[in-house]
Structures are given as C-alpha cells and as structure tokens.
Amino acid sequence: MAQQTRKTALLAGIALMLAACGSETDDIETANGVTDRSGDALAEIVGDVGTISIAADAFERTGLSGVLEGEASYTIMAPTDAAFERLGENAQETLENEERGAIVAAVLRDHMVPGALTPDAIRTAIEENGGEVSMATFGSGALTLSLDGETIVVSNGAGQSANIAGDPVVGQNGVVIPIDGVLVDPEALLGADGG
C-alpha cells in the first residue's frame, strides 16, 4: 500500500509541476508532439478533437462537460470514435441512449484521473517506478499505466487495455489523450442497464 501511495504521490507531483511551469513547459511539450491549447478549458478542447467526437458528445449529454470547465485539472484518456465503434452496436446504443446517462457518466469517469499528465510525464513516472504506475479514476476503479516498448498502455482492473492513439492536447485545466480502446467490458455495460 505504501508503494501505491508513493506512485500516486509521484504522479500528482508531476502533474502539479507541469501546471506550475507555464509557457516554458508549453513550448517544450509542443515540440514533443503535444498540442498546446493552454488558453482553453478541457470542455472546449474535447469538443474540438475530431477523432473523439463520440466521447465529446457523451461528455456534453451527461453534463460532465461542465466539470471540464472548472478550476480542477484532469487527464482524460479519451477513447477514439473507432474504439467506441468496436464495442458493437448494442453497447453503442447503450452509450448513446439519453435515458442511460448515469451509465455513460460512469464510463467517462473511469477514463479520467486527477492532474494534468502528458505522455512524457507518464513515461517518466513509469520508468521511475519500475515499470508501471496506478492512479485512481474519478469513477469506481483505477488505471494502470505501463510501457510496451515505446508505447504507453492504459489498463483497468477488469482486463481491458488501450494504447495512446493520437497527439495529446494540453489545456488550461488538464490534458486530453486519445486512446484506441474503451476501458469497459461491453457485456458488463449491457448487463448494467438490463439490455
């Protein structure tokens, strides 16, 4: 448990350092493939990243986009549209159904962690912690971050995993990182709503 606490504290410290560094960090990160939109809130950024339009719509429909306009900082591991499409038609219908907002909000919260973490910061934390780090999500679980060669892999406790699948975008209150999978079991998703 103490090692887990150290890992979480390290990631939180890295997130705070990134937030405090201002434009100097923005310039370095932009050079490393990170899009700098530090003048914009995450709510606006999520809506502008074309490869995550399904996630953006879900944030809007559930009201979580309001959270992304606030002062607190978040890292959103945002599944791409292709990732949502791979869940299958029934799971997509669940996620798009207006009456199932609580289920959709839970899925989104399980893709959000506290602090503003770029892939470079995540990679550093993984390397400094012997191969992986875990962070509690704003949902009911945790995400484990590890490396497969040079690729950062994000996984949950239920066995789903995804890779970073696009350039991250840094905003004034966090980071959006596209990933190539949805960290939810489609069967569990259908079972949760009786579908």
Automatic annotation (TrEMBL):
Keywords: Signal. Residues 1-22 form the signal peptide. Coiled coil: none annotated. It holds the Pfam family Fasciclin. SMART domains: FAS1. Residues 39-183 form the FAS1 domain. This is Fasciclin domain-containing protein. It comes from Erythrobacter rubeus. The lineage of its organism: Bacteria, Pseudomonadati, Pseudomonadota, Alphaproteobacteria, Sphingomonadales.
